[in-house]
Amino acid sequence: MKLFLREQFPLILFYIVQLFIITIVYWLDGYRHLTISLYAALLSSCLLISYLVFRYITNRSFYKRLENPLSSMDEFMNVDHSTPLAVSLHELLTSQFRHYKTDLQDYSRKLDGHIQFINQWVHQMKTPISVIHLMIQDKDESPYTEIGDELERLRKGLEMVLYISRLNTFDRDFYVETLSLEKIVRSVSSAQKRLFIRKHVFPMIEVPENLQVTSDEKWLSFVLTQLITNAIRYTIHENRKIYFRGFTRGIHSVLEIQDEGVGIPKSDLPRVFDPYFTGENGRHFQESTGMGLYLTKQICEKLGHRIEIESTINKGTIVRIIF
Amino acid sequence: MFKIFIIEDDRQLVKLLQEHLHKFGFDTKSVVNFESIRSEFEQYSPHLVLLDVNLPKYDGYYWCRQIRNISTCPILFISARDGKMDHVMALENGGDDYITKPFDYEIVIAKINSQLRRAYGDYSGSPNERSVDVNGLKLDVERLLLSLRDNMVDLSHTEAKILDELMKKQECVVSRDRLLEKIWDDQAFVDDNTLNVYITRVRKKLASLQIEDAIETIRGQGYRLNPNWGDVE
C-alpha cells in the first residue's frame, strides 16, 4: 500500500495542479459559481479515486511481492500477474534468473570437474609413491631413511589435498557407525610410528576398551592423524609422552590428547582454527600449513563433535574431542 | 610352485613386486597386452591374481568379473583408492581382498599366503616358508623357533622379529629406530626402554644356545649381529 501510494503520488499531485489551473482559467474568464466548480472538482476526484482503487486492486499481488523480500530463489516463480507491467517485469526477472542459474550450474559443474581431477591426480601420484616406498623398504641407511621421511611428508600432503577436496562433498561421503575409540586411537597412532620413533616421543594410550563413539571412521582417523602429528611436531624434547585419555563427561564420550610440547601462546589460541593461520609456532617450526587444525574443526563440526583446546607455554597442549 | 598373475600397468611397480615374489619362491607373470587379459590369464592359469583397479581401457572391476567367469582363484586388488565404496566394489565384483597403495611387502606376502592357504590348503613344507640361516643358526619365522645344531629354543613374536632383522643384515648395524618400528605393532606401550628389554631377552635366548656376545651394541646407532659361533660342518 505504501509503495503504491508513493508510486502514484506524482499523479495525484499532477491532478491537483491541473484541477487548480482549470478552475483559475474559468474564474478569470468571469465564471464565478463556486459551488458548481466544487461539484465538478468532487466528481473528477471521485473518478481519480476509483481509477486508483482499480489500479490498486488489479496490481495488489504485484505490489505485495515488491514490498516483501524473497525468502528463497524459487518463490517468485509461481505468482500470477494480470497487468502488463507486472507480467513483463516478471518475465524479465524470470529470464534473468534463468541466466543466473545456467551460470551457477556452469560453475558447479566446473567445481565438480576440478574436484574429480584432484581426486584422480592424487590417486595417480600414489603409484610413484608406492614404487619409491617399495624400493627403499629394506634399506636402513642414509640417505634411504631420509628419503623415507620425505616420502611420508609427501604422502601426508597428498592425503590432506584429498580430504580438503572431499570436504565439499562431505554429505555424500560419510558413513556413521559405532566405533571402538581405543581401536581407532591405536591404529592411527600406530600408522604414525615412524614419526614417533624419529622424534623419540611415545604414545600412552589410556582409553577404556569398551568406550564407544558414533562417528565416521575415515574422517575421524584423519582428524586424529592431524592432532597426533601436531602433538609430535611441537614436542621438542626427547623421551616425552603423548597421552591419549578416554572418558565420559555427562552423556558425551571425550577423547583427550595431551602433549608435553612447546604449547601455544595465549594470543594465538583463539585463532588456531582459522584457515592458513600459523601463528608464533608456525614461524619457528617448518611445515606449518595452517590447514591442519582448520580442517580438524571443520570435519568435527560436520560430524557433530565439539573440539576444545587448552595450552600452557612450555608445558604442553591439550585437545579434547567431545563426541 | 604357486603362480601369480600380476595385472598392473606401472612397469616399475610390477618389476619390484616380481623381484620380491621370486625371493619367496613364487612364479610370476605380468600382463603384456591390456586388451587380452582374459586370454593371457587362461594361458598362464595362475593360482592367484594381483589386480590393479585403474587400468588402460577397462578397469580392474571389469577384468575381475571376466576372470570370475572362468576361474575361482583368489583375486587380490591393489589400488590407490582407499574409500569404503572402493572396497565394497572390489569385493562385490568378485575380489577376495584389498590392498591400498602405498603398501609394505610384508602385507602383500602375508595376504597372498593367507589367500593361498585358504584356497589350496595348508602348504607347510612349501618353498614359500620363511626361514633365515646364518652360519648354521636357523630362525623359523613362522614357527617362532631358533635352532643351532641340535639345540632349539622358542621365541616370542617380538623376539623373532628382532632376530629376523638382525640376521638378515648380519655384520651390519641395524638402527634402533628400525627395530622399534618393526616391533611397534606387537606392543601396547612402546618407548626407548622396550627395545632394551627385548634385546636383553634375545641375548638370553642366544646364550641358551651357547652363543655369547653375538649382539653388539653400537652406541647411538643400533645393534650388530656378529656370527661368532663358527661354521657348523
TrEMBL record, chain A:
<keyword id="KW-0902">Two-component regulatory system</keyword>
<keyword id="KW-0547">Nucleotide-binding</keyword>
<feature type="transmembrane region" description="Helical">
    <location>
        <begin position="12"/>
        <end position="28"/>
    </location>
</feature>
<keyword id="KW-0418">Kinase</keyword>
<dbReference type="GO" id="GO:0004721">
    <property type="term" value="F:phosphoprotein phosphatase activity"/>
</dbReference>
<keyword id="KW-0808">Transferase</keyword>
<keyword id="KW-0067">ATP-binding</keyword>
<keyword id="KW-0812">Transmembrane</keyword>
<keyword id="KW-0597">Phosphoprotein</keyword>
<keyword id="KW-1133">Transmembrane helix</keyword>
<dbReference type="GO" id="GO:0005524">
    <property type="term" value="F:ATP binding"/>
</dbReference>
<feature type="domain" description="Histidine kinase">
    <location>
        <begin position="120"/>
        <end position="323"/>
    </location>
</feature>
<keyword id="KW-0472">Membrane</keyword>
<dbReference type="InterPro" id="IPR050351">
    <property type="entry name" value="BphY/WalK/GraS-like"/>
</dbReference>
<dbReference type="GO" id="GO:0005886">
    <property type="term" value="C:plasma membrane"/>
</dbReference>
<dbReference type="GO" id="GO:0016036">
    <property type="term" value="P:cellular response to phosphate starvation"/>
</dbReference>
<dbReference type="Pfam" id="PF02518">
    <property type="entry name" value="HATPase_c"/>
</dbReference>
<dbReference type="InterPro" id="IPR005467">
    <property type="entry name" value="His_kinase_dom"/>
</dbReference>
<dbReference type="InterPro" id="IPR003661">
    <property type="entry name" value="HisK_dim/P_dom"/>
</dbReference>
<dbReference type="InterPro" id="IPR004358">
    <property type="entry name" value="Sig_transdc_His_kin-like_C"/>
</dbReference>
<protein>
    <recommendedName>
        <fullName>histidine kinase</fullName>
        <ecNumber>2.7.13.3</ecNumber>
    </recommendedName>
</protein>
<feature type="transmembrane region" description="Helical">
    <location>
        <begin position="34"/>
        <end position="54"/>
    </location>
</feature>
From TrEMBL, chain B:
<dbReference type="InterPro" id="IPR011006">
    <property type="entry name" value="CheY-like_superfamily"/>
</dbReference>
<keyword id="KW-0597">Phosphoprotein</keyword>
<dbReference type="GO" id="GO:0006355">
    <property type="term" value="P:regulation of DNA-templated transcription"/>
</dbReference>
<dbReference type="InterPro" id="IPR001789">
    <property type="entry name" value="Sig_transdc_resp-reg_receiver"/>
</dbReference>
<dbReference type="GO" id="GO:0005829">
    <property type="term" value="C:cytosol"/>
</dbReference>
<protein>
    <submittedName>
        <fullName>DNA-binding response regulator</fullName>
    </submittedName>
</protein>
<dbReference type="Pfam" id="PF00486">
    <property type="entry name" value="Trans_reg_C"/>
</dbReference>
<dbReference type="InterPro" id="IPR039420">
    <property type="entry name" value="WalR-like"/>
</dbReference>
<dbReference type="GO" id="GO:0000976">
    <property type="term" value="F:transcription cis-regulatory region binding"/>
</dbReference>
<dbReference type="GO" id="GO:0000156">
    <property type="term" value="F:phosphorelay response regulator activity"/>
</dbReference>
<feature type="domain" description="OmpR/PhoB-type">
    <location>
        <begin position="129"/>
        <end position="227"/>
    </location>
</feature>
<dbReference type="InterPro" id="IPR036388">
    <property type="entry name" value="WH-like_DNA-bd_sf"/>
</dbReference>
<keyword id="KW-0238">DNA-binding</keyword>
<dbReference type="GO" id="GO:0032993">
    <property type="term" value="C:protein-DNA complex"/>
</dbReference>
<dbReference type="InterPro" id="IPR016032">
    <property type="entry name" value="Sig_transdc_resp-reg_C-effctor"/>
</dbReference>
<dbReference type="Pfam" id="PF00072">
    <property type="entry name" value="Response_reg"/>
</dbReference>
<keyword id="KW-0805">Transcription regulation</keyword>
<keyword id="KW-0902">Two-component regulatory system</keyword>
<keyword id="KW-0804">Transcription</keyword>
<feature type="modified residue" description="4-aspartylphosphate">
    <location>
        <position position="52"/>
    </location>
</feature>
<dbReference type="InterPro" id="IPR001867">
    <property type="entry name" value="OmpR/PhoB-type_DNA-bd"/>
</dbReference>
<feature type="DNA-binding region" description="OmpR/PhoB-type">
    <location>
        <begin position="129"/>
        <end position="227"/>
    </location>
</feature>
